[in-house]
Amino acid sequence: MESSPLERQSLGLLPWFIAATQILGLAAVIMTGVWMGHYEGGFAWDGSSLEFNIHPLCMVIGMVFLYGDSLLVYRVFKNESKTTVKILHAAIHLIALVAAIVGLVAVFGFHSAQNIPDMYSLHSWCGLITIILFCIQWVMGLTFFLFPGAAYSLRACYLPLHVYFGLGLFILAIGTSLLGITEKLFFSIRDTYSKFAPEGVLANVLGLVLVGFGLTVGYIVTRSEWKRVTNPEEEALSMHFKTLTERDSPDSPQGS
Amino acid sequence: MESSPLERQSLGLLPWFIAATQILGLAAVIMTGVWMGHYEGGFAWDGSSLEFNIHPLCMVIGMVFLYGDSLLVYRVFKNESKTTVKILHAAIHLIALVAAIVGLVAVFGFHSAQNIPDMYSLHSWCGLITIILFCIQWVMGLTFFLFPGAAYSLRACYLPLHVYFGLGLFILAIGTSLLGITEKLFFSIRDTYSKFAPEGVLANVLGLVLVGFGLTVGYIVTRSEWKRVTNPEEEALSMHFKTLTERDSPDSPQGS
């Protein structure tokens, strides 16, 4: 189907939207670094509050910036093979997961060294749920889409759920970050926050940048005319021979 | 196109998902009422903290429960005319907006009476942005889709943006609610929150219920096979005669 001039015009905006995500994502990482590095005293792995400071930086790098970029690979690498892009998607998510685990070890280590109770706040509840579901999502993605054993019909059934929960967990990760920002400000600058202390303003702006990053990534991945068009031949080739011999072929209605 | 047995089966799940949203939404409203009514002392319009208590209740009723229900009307009333459902959508949003404004007046009134500074927290920034964009979105929706003057091509261009930002603002409203929960807990039960005080646990569970409501509403409105199938005849009839005489008819490719 030939695209209209309006559609061609909107397709041309994709690189600008991608650029916007990278500017917002990098700005969020830098602002978190400046907040923790400058206003909160820097980073160290010594059980002090400097160890805590590693936590927000790792979470924003892993669960927000890298997670978002991993969602974008299907829009950025439209001409690469599906398998290559899938591997890239899984690999970036794996690096994001490693960063998140380092961030978690930092905060639990800090709590343990300072005898601070764990897991009582809404931030911690949302965060742990996000991480656990993220791990399950990653393993299920690998099993269904990269290991060659899954039948086409199963893949087709699971794909919309994987996409929905992938985006849902990304939004939950951003929401959890905003909760973390609020919690940290109420611990650190409770008395000066209401007087618009620079640290509070920086952290608030960081929150808005995170929201902007989420909205832009969400817009790119949900816009229908920017979706990757699946090539049935490529889809068939990316599957194991075994699955092709099963009853549910790529041409079956269940997979359409 | 005939639907597969799997599709028919999944269509049958829609009422259950709708029921789940109503249970979660009502649970959120009741829990907010119990939190403010029982643990925080009840409600009054007297400039005290009891006036503040009106704020969370109005926001959860308006910006979360009613807002979410307004998104669902296109899935619930599939057999009603498009115009009827549009009016219902706009009307529920209007009630939501009124509830939100009452909630805003309550919190600003409380701040004013107690000499508490306004608009310094991330919660207040996100909240104000959400309300302003919500008002703009409502007026634009009315102008484009209910007033008969807008050309079909303009409607078709704006619709995806209206849908995306509508869902985006709903998510932002839920995120802002979670920030409000965290902020309120750090003001009210800072010393006992870490000891798992019942009020803190109730508020945390409320946060998770709000996330669950958002995820379920989001799933229903984004699931492709549950989308309302637009009837071109009905679409044409819902437009003003003037727009039908313009160059961009409903059958033009731009509107497809």
The chain-level mean pLDDT of chain A equals 89
Task: Please tally the β strands of chain A and state the result.
Answer: 0
**Approximately how much beta-strand content do the residues of chain A carry?**
under 5%
Tell me about the largest β-sheet of chain A.
none
Descriptive keywords:
homodimer, 256 residues, mainly alpha, 11 helices, 0% strand, globular
Written account of the structure:
Two copies of one chain form a homodimer. Chain A has 256 residues and is mainly alpha-helical. Chain A has eleven helices and no strands. In chain A, helix 4 (54-76) runs antiparallel to helix 5 and helix 4 (54-76) packs antiparallel against helix 7 (152-188). Chain A is globular, with a radius of gyration of 21 Å. The two termini of chain A are 18 Å apart. Residues 240-256 of chain A have low confidence and may be disordered. Chain A binds chain B through residues 4, 6, 116-117, 120-123, 125-126, 129, 157, 160, 164, 168, 171-172, 174-175, 178-179, 181-183, 185-186, 190, 193-196, 200, 203-204, 207-208, 211, 215, 218-219, 222-224, 253-254, and chain B through 4, 6, 116-117, 120-123, 125-126, 129, 157, 160, 164, 168, 171-172, 174-175, 178-179, 181-183, 185-186, 190, 193-196, 200, 203-204, 207-208, 211, 215, 218-219, 222-224, 253-254.
